[in-house]
Amino acid sequence: MIRLFPLLLLLAAFSCGPSSEDRAAGPAIVKRYSVEPVELTVSVDRDRLDVSETVELALEATAPEEQEVRFPVLPDKLGGFSVLESREASPLLVGDGQILRRETYVLEPFLPGDYEIPPLTIGIGEDRSIETEPMQVVVESLLKEGEEKPEIKDIAPPVSLPGLNPWIYVGIAVLLIAAGLTYWWKKLRRKRAPVETQPQPHEIALRALRELMNEDLITKGQAKLFYLKVSAILRRYIEGRFGLQAPESTTEEFLNDLRDDQSFSERQKELLRQFLVHCDLVKFAGHQPVREEIDDTINTCAQFIAETKPQESAVQPGTGGGS
Known about the structure:
By secondary structure, this protein is of the alpha+beta class. It contains eight helices and 13 strands. Helix content is 38%, strand content 22%.
């Protein structure tokens, strides 16, 4: 029993040591920047990985609702990494009029080595930006330390095949011809795929409105976030449809610009004014809306989009419109 005691201590030491997963993942890199009124955090979830793993680069910006923040659109290749995907999280209300926006990029390394994630530019408003610092990431090989690369052997010389019955070659030729004819027949019968068109502003807005209703924020007691999102939907629609800078303007500034605009009727201007003022009461003045007010807000938003979207021509292409 006494002789077994040193062995037990040795086994316990190995079991308490760091796992291979702990050794592979290094500490996260976090960098923070501040350009009034935007607070930016840039991070990677690991600074050491092997070639079979990926690293996530996250950008988080906290800014007022009306402040525009533009995250970069990354190319397919970034430094020594391939950009696999980009994920944009839904805006999150984190304070009095403060919105947290988050974009996550999944990066995959090419080869082992020391790599640098290059500086990124985050746009703020029309003429300002934040330039991030480069971040160093180490990509390790899957080979163990001291292990040599596997030897690549030369190609073996060709092996002569025994003589085959000539009818086998005839059968193979017939099969290849049949396969080729079948391919071309199917290709000729295949209908041309419809050309994908970019969604119109009203289509984007109505889809966003349906998604907002499915979130059921009112039932969850998040009326302020609901009004924040529904007003943003209508503001972005107006910008995309009429070119007005609705998302960047305050309600008062936007209504002042709207007075002399001929894109809307007087009734639509009044409808828009009531909608935005009511949303501001909930977002900034602590007003608690009742169910009837919430339904009116949704109906007003949908009605305004339906009335101002482009109207289809009465004469469809190809039907003839002249006499």
